[in-house]
Write a structure and sequence with these properties.
This protein is α+β, with helices and mostly antiparallel strands and about 450 residues long. It has 18 helices and six strands. A hairpin with a 4-residue loop joins strand 3 (about 275-285) and strand 4. Helix 2 (about 45-50) packs antiparallel against helix 3 (about 50-60).
Length: about 450
């Protein structure tokens, strides 16, 4: 996909404050991104009752950059949840809450600033397909859909709202995960002789044994083994095995196993340290959710024997989970350890690890390659998307979305990161909050013991 003339930066503020007194929100931008009150103009009823030519006139009046459909069919169009233009043509068929969210999404992804440049969310659509993701979430039953769609929209106090949804929102993910990690470790490629991208995942057993991939990270390896067809490799392995597996305890058990294996590798001096994150790979038709852990690891000399030890340790932990019935009996270890060869690749893989979940890609991939003209399959796809939204937040509940150890841990004597004064202030504040929470918890437990005694 070609980039926009002014490429999106994930840290940009989505509403540009220009003109007026310093610190004052631009009213035109606020009106453009506000929820508006089109219901008072009878838009939904008008689109539903009038003939095509009149509908096109009123449709283009309110949505000039959307494509008008003279023959909308609600029963069919509602299934294509990632197509914003189709959903706007069927606006009258949605409830008032969904109508409002769809209009907000439209305003966000078509916003042009006063200087003529595309707005933040408009640029995100060019580089990250935010438009399809936002439409998919707006028409779903996702628990955080209202906050997600209204993220970046000015509130009454003229401050932009923030959804805090790091699973899907590119803006909040950048501010809470990607931005701080890039700021802290973006320079660390030259800090150690070797940097490896490590992925600890699962694959189908049967005739296949646990798999270890230990190679240099070239473009061919990346596109042939890691992201074939635009999907993470686990999508193509063991589809039948993981179909319908939505055991939240199993997801977190796999996350913990990956974290423990990486930690044991650092403790065993095979790695100097690592930072990374848990992630879910999702696919549809059949529905499959696969937990795995990504990490960038630093070392002085990481050999094939070290990589084999990582595989053995991870498989031992998965074997215990299989014996306990926590994960499928056919799931075995799939470990990728790829040596990063350049600083540019290092930054790209850091951004890959901390990216938001791109559920719209899995939806569009399944709808174009596995549905065809089968409306029943499309309806099933829509139901599977709803099921994924039900499990995604619970899968990460109470589990840290940033993992680190060794030289990447802030209190390490050999800490390799860079912490700005602003980030240090936030860390100290959070540490104080955690300390007070522990004290209150200990005090409550002590009082409870005294009462029982």
């Amino acid at each position: 996909m070609e980039s926009s003339p002014s490429p999106a930066k994930a840290g940009d503020d989505p509403i540009k404050r220009e003109g007026g007194a310093p610190g004052t929100a631009d009213r035109a931008d606020a009106q453009t991104l506000g929820t508006g009150d089109l219901e008072s103009e009878g838009l939904a009823d008008f689109l539903h009752d009038t003939v095509a030519s009149e509908r096109e006139f009123i449709f283009k009046r309110h949505f000039p950059k959307a494509q008008f459909n003279p023959n909308p069919c609600w029963e069919v169009d509602q299934l294509f949840k990632s197509d914003l233009d189709l959903q706007l043509n069927n606006l009258a068929s949605y409830d008032s809450g969904t109508q409002s969210l769809l209009k907000v999404v439209y305003r966000k992804v078509t916003l042009i600033l006063q200087d003529g440049e595309a707005g933040y969310w408009n640029r995100q659509t060019e580089c990250d397909d935010y438009k399809a993701r936002a439409c998919l979430i707006a028409t779903s039953g996702y628990e955080k859909r209202d906050a997600f769609c209204l993220c970046g929209v000015p509130r009454n106090d003229r401050k932009n709202s923030r959804c805090q949804d790091i699973s899907f929102c590119p803006r909040c993910n950048f501010k809470r995960r990607l931005g701080p990690m890039e700021e802290e470790f973006g320079h660390c490629y030259t800090a150690f002789p070797e940097v490896h991208l490590i992925t600890l995942s699962l694959r189908k057993a049967g005739a296949l044994e646990p798999r270890l991939t230990f190679k240099d990270l070239t473009a061919e390896v990346w596109y042939e083994e890691v992201v074939p067809d635009g999907c993470v490799r686990p999508f193509t392995d063991g589809i039948a095995t993981y179909s319908g597996w939505t055991d939240l305890d199993g997801f977190q058990a796999v996350f913990r196993a990956g974290r423990a294996t990486l930690g044991a590798t650092v403790d065993g001096k095979r790695l100097s340290g690592y930072f990374g994150a848990p992630e879910l790979a999702v696919g549809f038709l059949p529905f499959k959710v696969l937990p795995h852990v990504h990490a960038l690891a630093f070392s002085h000399c990481f050999t094939l024997e070290d990589a084999q030890e990582v595989l053995r340790d991870y498989e031992d932990r998965l074997r215990l989970l299989r014996d306990q019935g926590v994960i499928p009996q056919t799931a075995v270890a799939d470990v990728q350890i790829l040596r990063v060869l350049s600083a540019e690749d290092y930054l790209n893989k850091l951004r890959y690890i901390f990216k938001p979940l791109k559920v719209e890609q899995a939806f569009q991939y399944s709808s174009t390659t596995r549905v065809g003209d089968d409306l029943a399959a499309m309806a099933k796809l829509s139901r599977e998307v709803e099921e994924f939204f039900e499990v995604v937040e619970a899968a990460f509940l109470e589990f840290h979305r940033v993992l680190r150890k060794g030289v990447c841990f802030g209190k390490s004597a050999r800490y390799c990161g860079v912490v700005t004064p602003e980030r240090q202030f936030k860390r100290d504040r959070e540490q104080a909050r955690r300390t007070m929470a522990k004290r209150r918890k200990a005090s409550a437990a002590r009082r409870l013991r005294e009462d029982e005694g």
